[in-house]
Structures are given as structure tokens and as C-alpha cells.
Amino acid sequence: MRKLVLVLFAAVFLIVPSEASAQQDWKTHVAQTMPLMGHRNWVLIVDSAYPLQSSPGVETIETNANQLDVLRYVLGSINSSIHVRPLVYMDKELPFVGDDDAPGASAYREQVQKMLADYTIESMPHERVISQIDETSKEFHVLVLKTTMTIPYSSVFIRLDCKYWSADAEKRMRQRMH
Q: Rounded to whole angstroms, how far apart are CA atoms 22 and 86?
């Protein structure tokens, strides 16, 4: 009996991944995927109730991690790349989510605003962001990183843009073409 218990314990220990290895897995995946991604790709850092999308271009990974930690890691990965920069979108509904309905909402807003202080944040109604991502995923890859966040409308949507070619440069080039 003692041997059986030890064998079962060892099997569970080997089969069930530890939280540290789960966190390493999503970080490794982001590190491996980022060089492949470019402008028009998206990285979403979402709350735990974000739906599993069925579009073929959407890849969803459960991080089992704190949303702000995931956001910090993803922004670091993007910022250290040579080819992409983040365009940040958030749900227009978030400022209206009260602590009485979602405890911690005010504290989260303060923390995420501090973390994103150096970025321009475009607010959009949630359904519009989802529609845009759905449309984009028909042609381009969307990486969804689910977190342990339990505050609604707290997701951060990052559309990747070219780091070394600006919208102004594109406009000037198009004008020269005509």
C-alpha cells in the first residue's frame, strides 16, 4: 500500500505541471512567437472570463498569472524587439466599472494607468474591439493570453505596428508614388 501511494504521488507530481513551469511556458511561447509577429498582429492580455474565440487566426494560452505581470512581460518583449511597437487599446467601459460591483476595479485602473503612462491608450467599446479582432484574425495571427484577472472590461489589447516605419513615412511615400 505504501508503495502504491508513493507511485501515485510521483505520477501526480510528474503529470501536473507546477505553477512555475506553466508561467515559464507562456513566457517561452511569447518569446518564441514575438519575432514572427509584425504589424497587424495582435497580443491580448485578457481577464479570466474572456471567451475562447473560434477564428482560425486566434491562439489562446492560459497563463495562470496576474494580468499586470503578463502585461509587463509582453510590453517588455515588444519594446525590446527591433521590428514592432505597441498600439494599446482598452475597453471604454472600464472607467464605469465600480468597486461595489467589481471589488478592486479602482485599484486596477490606477495600476494599469501607471504601467501604460508612456503609451497612448485608445478606448473603444468592448464589442467594437472584439469585432475588429475577429475581422483581423481572418488574415493575421492574434495571440490571446488569459490571466487570473476577475475584473470585467479590464483586458488590454495590443495591436502591433512597425517600429521602424511610421504612418507619416507611409503617407510621404504614398504621396511620392502619385
A: 25
- The total domain count for the chain is 1
Q: What is the CATH number of the domain that holds 74?
A: 3.40.1650.10
Q: What are the pLDDT tens digits along the chain (178 aa)? A: 555 444 444 444 444 444 444 556 999 999 999 999 999 999 999 999 999 998 889 999 999 999 999 999 999 999 999 999 999 999 999 999 999 999 999 999 999 999 999 999 999 999 999 999 999 999 999 999 999 999 999 999 999 999 999 989 999 999 999 9
Domain carrying residue 102: 19-177
- Alpha-helix residue ranges (DSSP H) falling in the chain: 2-15, 19-33, 67-79, 105-115, 126-136, 167-177
Quick check: 105 and 97 in contact, CB under 8 A?
Answer: yes
